[in-house]
Amino acid sequence: MIRKPAPPPPAAEPPAAEGSEPAKEGDTAAAEKPDPATTEPATLSVKTDTEAADATAKTWPQEQSDIAADPKAVFGKLENGMRYIIYPNAEPPGRVSLRMHIAAGSLMEADDQRGVAHFLEHMVFNGSKNFTPDELIPRMQRLGIAFGAHVNAYTSFDETVYMLDLPDLSEEIMKLGFTIMRDFGDGAKLDAEEIDKERGVILSEKTSRDTVGFRLMEQQFAELLPGSLLTKRFPIGTEEVIKTAPRERFVDLYTRYYTPERMTFVVVGDVKPEEIEARIKENFSSLTNPADPGKNPELGEIKKIEGMQAAVFSDKEVTSTDLSLVSVRPYSIVPDSSTRRLSMLPLGLANAAIGRRFERISKQDGSPIAKGSSSRDELFNYAEIGSFDVTAADDRWQDALPVLEQEFRRALEFGFTDAEIAEAKANVLNAYQQAVKTAPTRKSESLATGIARSINDGTVFSTPETDLEIIAKGLDTMTAETCHAAFREFWADQGMHLVLTTKQEPENARATLLAIYEESRSKPVEAPEQKEAVEFAYTDFGPAGTVKSRKEVEGLEFSQIVLSNGVRLNLKKTDFEKGSIRLTTRFGSGKLTQPKDMPGLDLFASSVFDAGGLGKHSVDDLQQILAGQNVGTAFAVGDDAFTLGGRTTPEDIGLQLQIMCAQLTDPGYREEAVAQFKKAIPMIFQQLRHTPEGPHAQMEAWLHGADSRWGVLTEEKLGSYTIEDARKWLTPALTKDYLELSIVGDFDESTLLPLVLKTFGALPARAEKKADLAAARKINFPKGAAEKTFTYDSKIAQGTAIVVWKTEGLRGNTKLFRRLNLLGSILSDRLREEIREKLGASYSPNAGATGSDGLDGYGYMMAMCVGKAEDTKKLADTATEIANLLARDGTNDDELDRARKPMQATMEKTKRDNSYWLGTVLAQSQEDPARLDLIRGRDADYASITAKELHDIAIKYLGQKHALKVLIHPETEKKAEGE
């Protein structure tokens, strides 16, 4: 596949579950162009080109469009040219999210500044007008703002975005937030000494982000966009510039491009716009533009090619073998409008239909492809790229290439069936309808990030209702014929690249590619077959059950119900997510019952269960049947339970329950699912061999005492499993074991409960309690101090140092783990200060407590640092010594406060988070009633923790005599010849 820049890190981490690892330090990282499809609101992305950027930066897209902006949004511009958007939004209440968008990124760099734009993003945190280098992060922490979780940033080719989520609206916090953002704008000190100290951090980040995928993307850009500035301006930069760029290079870029005319300030939250507007004017009106501001660069001409041009990219570490037809052309300037959005719709529907075709082909017996897709992308207001792709099964690219060519030609010649387009239309319409229904409870941080990401796109910030109105009218006119015409128009008269990406370049690969492609073109293709609609077959599960008992849980406001067949039901109605309902079912005992000497059976079973569909419907049938419906499930194997969960809407909850019960009573277990899994096995092991994932899996096996359930996988063993292996293991859990169903969200119980009684209540009787399986819960964790080295085959000199300290297990030790969470946060902050800030040896060192709620005594504190391969021993020793000092000297009240306040801010958010209520509170509340009192007392317990308690725990668990050091790095010695 053609590799495209990845989205930036999220604006904030999800809330930590009770007893789980706390939120850790995040990135202020070089990230590439975000994916507009992931942002809110769900509008089609529209961009302007680079030449128009200077002009459009001074206007709002709605000023040139027939699309109205959301009337709740306040748009403004200061006299200095800085724009702002204020959007009042009360979810979560009492909070606000700030985003500062700078319309400048790595493309604005000179040759001797390659990497400085991203470097600048780091430097604004390292000393500014109002904060010394050592002051800003502690100051934020004391007010409940965690570095990474609540404050973050990213740098792309054409933008830099700073993100700050504030935990409340107090004057102190609001003043701090606005002061920080103003300092980012023009207050960075850029001290030469601080720049030198940060060089190691940037180099560590470059090391941590060096992957085969990234290197291939650089090569592909160079091939597809020869002569373009893009190929020379990847945001992470060059090692030479990172090591040697003088202060003047930073000052030059900062003063010429961090200008108010390039800035857009975004404020979303539970605020009064007039008050925020006054703050913006007070804080940012004095920003000034330089006499000689930086200009947007010329990105270079996109060279048109004639005919077919073959290209091959090879690397022994690449995970899969891929083939692509690629079209590259200049991007045309088209302002956002109803016409523009609708013009993109037929091609989008066509691409969706092609993706479904490839999905069906990949499941055919002996199919040479594992998957396929068709797409259109815009790169940085500059290039438009079409890509038609397949992944070859078992590296059989010679067999996969005719599939690529013939499906491309089939779409060009015959287009699409009415059923294909109807399915795609139903899914698009449903997505826009759901955006309308869920709009009242959109989260401020997501909205703020979505607005910031759309600024360079020139997209009107319209309401979901407006978006739906535009798209619905367009969908009414969409036919198979209009989609066919759009597909032909997009690909007509285009020179194309035929791209092979594989492990080793075959001899005469380019000539062979073209020859196979030309031979395939000589074979006729037929029109796609029209598929008949199928009715859903699972609507009757027998006589409805009844409610046997009911209990209201005080203080947590949810209901615990036992049905007549023994099914446990937990219900909590909330208004946190309008139009959304979350469900999860825990049943059976998960990996506790996994047969001995069958490592990886859980991976195999979960894959074939999901991909097998239902007895009466294949996955392909289900996708057609359920098009436009908000239903779906995910099956997983946990340490002590199987889970089947999903998310739906009030309108579709009945269908969702039917699907879940159908999976329990009549799973598909199709051989096509086994075939699909076997195609993935070589890719799985390619990744295990050539990335740190392999050593991490080996480490997990070691920490689990070489228990076969967590054993090291082999290709032969994983490929030997059959449908009967999965069926034999899963059937008892699916049909008779203890089952607990939990439902949280926007539902009417008078409607929901009868639906549950007709589905889950109609199932055969379930066990009254879970099996004990005490022996299966025991794990032989490594004892005492030790050092282990795990290696993998890679030319990328990246190493990982991990230090593990055994603790009690999470199971039955919630209060201890709360203290370990805080201790881990303190240790993580010390690792950041010493290893990142002082030594510059690791980009994002972190620590935290983890453990299993299903195994006895399985818990540990872990510190992890990623850096240069040759530094792994030094990093492990340094992390161990930092922990030794924490055990020896303990912590103090200020350090404890700086760890606890951000955690408390996150915990406060969980009270309005359905995923927290579902996964942490309800999911096993009848299986383990004792957890409810612990949850009720969570906040008070965290508030009661003292520095002495943490010191005592550090003494007990941390320290050299308890440290297990794990060193992970590429193999350094070549195998002897003949081995």
Automatic annotation (TrEMBL):
Where does the signal peptide begin and end? none
Give the protein family: Belongs to the peptidase M16 family.
Requisite cofactors? Zn(2+)
Sorted alphabetically, which PROSITE patterns does this protein's record hold? INSULINASE
Enumerate the spans annotated as Peptidase M16 N-terminal domain.
Answer: 85-205
Q: Where is the composition biased (Basic and acidic residues)?
A: 21-35
Question: Mind telling me which Pfam families this protein's record contains?
Answer: Peptidase_M16, Peptidase_M16_C
- UniProt domain Peptidase M16 C-terminal: residue ranges: 247-427, 722-901
Question: Which species does this protein come from?
Answer: Luteolibacter flavescens
**Biased composition range(s): Pro residues:** 1-13
**Keywords recorded for this protein, A-Z:** Hydrolase, Metal-binding, Metalloprotease, Protease, Zinc
> What is the name of the protein in this document?
Insulinase family protein
Stretches for region Disordered? 1-65
